[in-house]
Amino acid sequence: MREIVIGGAQLGAIQKADTREAVVDRMIALLQQAKGAGCDLVVYPELALTTFFPRWYIEDSAEVDQWFEHEMPNDATRPLFDAAKAANIAISFGYAECTPDGHHFNTSILTDREANIIGKYRKVHLPGHSEYDTERAFQHLEKRYFEPGDLGFPVWRNMDALMGMCICNDRRWPEVYREMGLQGVELVMLGYNTPSVNSQMSDEGLEKRLYHSDLSMTAGAYQNATWVVGVAKAGDEDGHPLMGGSIIVDPNGYVMARAETEGDELIVHACDMDACAFGKTTIFDFGRHRRIEHYQRIGTQTGVVLPDAWPTS
Ligand code: CDT
Q1: What is the pTM of this model?
Q2: How do the domains of the chain map onto residue ranges?
Q3: How many Å apart are CA 218 and CA 234, to the nearest integer?
Q4: What is the CATH number of domain 3-300?
Q5: pLDDT tens figures, 270-286
Q6: Is the N-terminal amide bond of 73 cis, ω within 30° of 0?
Q7: Ligand 1 pocket: which of 165, 171, 193 to mutate (most atoms <8 Å of CB)?
Q8: Annotated catalytic residue: which of 168, 179, 262, 276?
């Protein structure tokens, strides 16, 4: 048995005016709770250090820059790294990254139990739009503030397991899990900021949005025989509600732990990485069963190409 006790550290709302330091204090409080619960690894949400700023249309690049981190760790986040090292707990969290040469990514990092960063992922599927959209009830400007990730979907060896990351909207795309599944992934960690309402369909209920989130993660887990840990930033951020629904999913697609609130909340499960082996060596033994000669479109075609026109009779 290769057991990793995993904590999903859901964060409640972060207001525009909240400082990084105040958020890091909340993250450390969850880390201490996780230590008490025996956790080996704690997963925090997407853009964990700030409000979900892509809802705001900003033209001034200096104003945009305030949401980005130029190094990691930095002065604001070092106390979290120090606390994680002292607790001997590996962590993963998301933040807005500005690289030394000025590129902007929606990024997640993964550490080992000594707080060394051993993995970095940059969000590939950026939802939303890049210009102000008058048709929407609120803005979702990820395509304005970020470039698509340039690192693919790597999988790292950490804590005697094979670990990968993705971020929020990525969780809805089966290609993401399969890219990692093809590297033998046993644990996919992801954070999200998902608005509780659909900016383009006001009558869509929260229940449906939670279902789609669950559906995506449970299917990804089952079809790749991997654990999936999905962690929300939730709650009302300056009048804009984000849904909760953080879950830990086992390699059969069952939800083993689920957040009950939309606030700061820790969910915990003891995850046996060896539980991935059965699915990976039977129904989803990729080496024996995949038929890549029939999958050409997946790697070469982005949008839909319809078959030939209907026959005319
Ligand atoms: N952060 C993020 O990726 N959120 C998206 C909302 C999409 S609506 C434009 C999500 O898929 O949850």
Answers
A1: 0.97
A2: 3-300
A3: 20
A4: 3.60.110.10
A5: 999 999 999 999 999 99
A6: yes
A7: 193
A8: 168
